[in-house]
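[job 4417] fold queue: 2 targets
>>> target A
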Amino acid sequence: MSLVRRQFLSRAAVAGSVLGAPMVANAQSARFNWKMTSAYGKGSPFYMDGPGSATDLAKRIREMSDGRLNIQVFGAGELIPAFEGFDAVRAGTVEMNHANAYFWTGKTAAAQYFTAVPFGMNFQGMNGWFYDGGGIDLWNEVYAPFGMVAMPCGNTGVQMTGWFKKEIKTVADLKGLKMRIPGLAGKVYANLGVDVKVLPGGEIFPALERGVIDAAEFVGPFQDRRLGLQKAAKYYYTTGWHEASTVSELLINKAAWDKLPADLKAIVSNASAACNVISEAWCQKANSEAMDDLVKNQGVIARPLPDDVIKALKTETNKVLTEAIKDPLTKKVHDSYFAFKSKYDRWTEVSEEAYHLKVRG
């Protein structure tokens, strides 16, 4: 190589590094102000306040990014109604929404699998599928036509079957019952004669108290006690067949996401993963204390559903899941979910199940 050419290349390299430096600096100094809505009311524990909540997520992102990504959080009804987050993010009205994917099953049937599947996987299984089984990639494949991306950002763990004004002894006791229950579980109950209602959390207690509904499912002991559901119904069924774990969804407008530099994307992803674990840990403590209080101090009758009722629910679940597969993408998600569940179930038989049966007791 000639001396002239070597000098030219050296100068070009120096120039390139000088020109590239401002571009890197600009990317790292750019600031973003986003809005995030929620399906839950302002102040709601777990969802809006406390460890792993929407406000906690926003705080973590702000602190880790040194204020470069600031997210203003709005509770249900503050900016948009509770169940309009999907459309608001899709339209770019807001950059983010914090809710549960099964609220959007009317948009795409596959959304249910990213929140909870009746008789499905628990918290550990869901995380295994999401982070190492291709679940998050499928989630984003499902949302790609809508111009959105998503990731898990919370989990309630096992939820309770719910509150009933009367005792459930047989499958026949479900017929004609008016019950608040969302998602695929609602379709399962409907097949057994239940009159299914979908209500935001804040409307459940007055509806149950006034007899507009006869039964209601919300989350678990802490959240349910906060709503006062124990004052409107005394039978609390604990089986949790419908939501063995319930995932909170961070929904993001893809055009806005693509404008973030790589480090801010990493911050959002890692803050979301942290909240996913932290929120579930909070639920364990809060629910254990609340359950003791409900049974010991508030006269609540807590029990699992009768075996024949569980059997009927499982039979109808299989039918509903089969009927829900109406397109190749939903089938792809379904097959992935249950293939992972099959392997996970075999593992839990010799791990978690053995622990609960042989060690814990």
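>>> target B
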Amino acid sequence: MTEELDFLGQLDPDDPKQASQQIANKLRAAILTRRLAPGDKLPSQPELAARYGVARETVKRALELLRAERLIVSRQGSGAFVRAQTQRAVELRPHIEAAFERPHVTIDFAGFSGETLRDAISEALDKVRVGRLAPDTIAVRVLISDMTVPMALPSRAETQADDPAVRERAERITRRAADGIIDQVTELGDLGLIRSTTVEVRMHRASPLFKLYILNGEEVFYGFYPVVERTVSIKGEPVAIYDLMGKDVPLFHYAATDDDTSHGTQFVEASRQWFDSVWSTIAYGYAG
């Protein structure tokens, strides 16, 4: 049974998170990547306790976390099972970290500025720096809107029209995020910690209305940018703008499986095709 559970990994003694949280993270990743498919029975509490070298109470706390997230259900006398419907908003960071456990990491992002991606990968990259994660290669592609050209969004709320000053503010945010991603990833290659690192950023002239992450070509996270009216400071003056709010946007998860007809597999394939089509046609180089 121990070998059968190898996909669940081991606990990290240097991780400050409690053992129950680490176990929950391992099981959550297995569920959302379909290593444990809807309807599958989870390993028993004694099996998980033996796997991770912890008390059963620790395993019970981990399962309670997943039950609270509606990822699993318990059946009296039968054990715990993956809930049949697991399509829900998810948190990106654990999946980014799981992606970095692979020898070859690929991340494709399409959206507004890439701020969320920059922040999400920073923790995984920190673990690479201290040797807790050790991928062989990292390749990142970032597809963002060119805020130096007229856009429908963001815009001045009063006129609902493009405003160069509003775009200039958005362009600074976009450039800061893109440069941060480039610097963080290439630094690992410069330090010799990763055999090969590549980061490529391209832009296009369409307003961003959604964000898309593709991890290792197998998982997709998709979310919509709500348009909100808010007041920001531009050249020291308060200005009401229609803005795109990306922070805390719910992301929905899709994973490819061995079933080519599954909803997850088809969504991942369609997302990859969409990204590659924009990347290879209307997108152009970023002058960093």
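[job 4417] complete. Note on B: The helical segments are 19-32, 45-52, 56-68, 93-99, 115-129, 164-190, 263-280.
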